[in-house]
Amino acid sequence: MSDYDPPMTPLEVLHEDHEILVVAKPPGLLSVPGKGEHLADCLLARVQEAFPMALLVHRLDRDTSGVMVFALSPHAQRHLGLQFEKRQVKKIYVARVWGRVEERTGTVDLLLIVDWPNRPRQKVCHETGKAAVTDWRVQRYGDGETRMRLMPKTGRSHQLRVHMQALGHPILGDPFYAEGAALEHERLMLHSEELRLRHPDGGAGMVFRQKAPF
Asked: What is the 3-state secondary structure (H, E, C) of the chain?
């Protein structure tokens, strides 16, 4: 990742209260720092500059954009962390994928594991992989591509990217799993558009959205 060139976009706050902070992550920015000084710039560091109390709850891939929630207290971090762990948080992504997906809805249920010689790539492995399930729905068709809504039931690393590749429809602009014309896009066409969770103070259901920029 020596070519890391994070965008200098200002922090975009979608929601802020006494327990949680919801922000829009730009594409190309790490969620957390990587190994080495050149990978220190990340969304967590930028958030903590403005909100020193902010604590990490979950991550998005460097090349994925969209809605991310941070906790503003240890209680909120525990509460939200358990919601993610118990798969109670509903996540909706938008993706543009290669080719025409003929069926209108479906589910990918394929075990995933890190591809050690090629990490951070992940791969399907029926013997030692961990459970990974993604529901999907076609939104509309474009020129040689399909716009999809992806609803992961689990939160494995690169899950949506590997699952779409396994369907035969890699996400456009994916530096790890797309090739040829599918790779030739200005960014990974994957965006976390919606998060549904319960507020750590009182448990009220909340929905946070940011429309996909593509």
From this structure: CCCCCCCCCCCEEEEECCCEEEEEECCCCCCCCCCCHHHCCCHHHHHHHHCCCCECCCCCCCCCEEEEEEECCHHHHHHHHHHHHCCCCEEEEEEEEECCCCCCEEEEECCEEECHHHCCCEEECCCCCECCEEEEEEEEECCCEEEEEEEECCCCCCHHHHHHHHHCCCECCCCCCCCHHHHCCCCCCEEEEEEEEECCCCCCEEEEECCCCC
Give exposure, 20-35, as e/b (b: 16+ Cβ within 10 Å): bbbbbbbbbbbbeeee
Quick one: which of 71, 69, 87, 2 has its CA closest to 31? 69
pLDDT tens across 77-123, in order?
999 999 999 999 999 999 999 999 999 999 999 999 999 999 999 99
Rg (CA), the chain: 17
**Residue 65 CB: number of other CB atoms within 10 A?**
26
**Which residues have C-beta within 8 Å of that of residue 166, sequence separation ≥ 6?**
108, 110, 124
204: left (phi over 0), alpha (psi -120 to 50) or beta: beta
Catalogue the active-site residues.
61
Q: How far is Cα 30 from Cα 39, in angstroms, rounded to an integer?
A: 8
Kindly report the pTM of this predicted structure. 0.96
Burial of 180-194, coded b for 16+ CB within 10 Å and e otherwise, reads eebbebebbbbbbbb
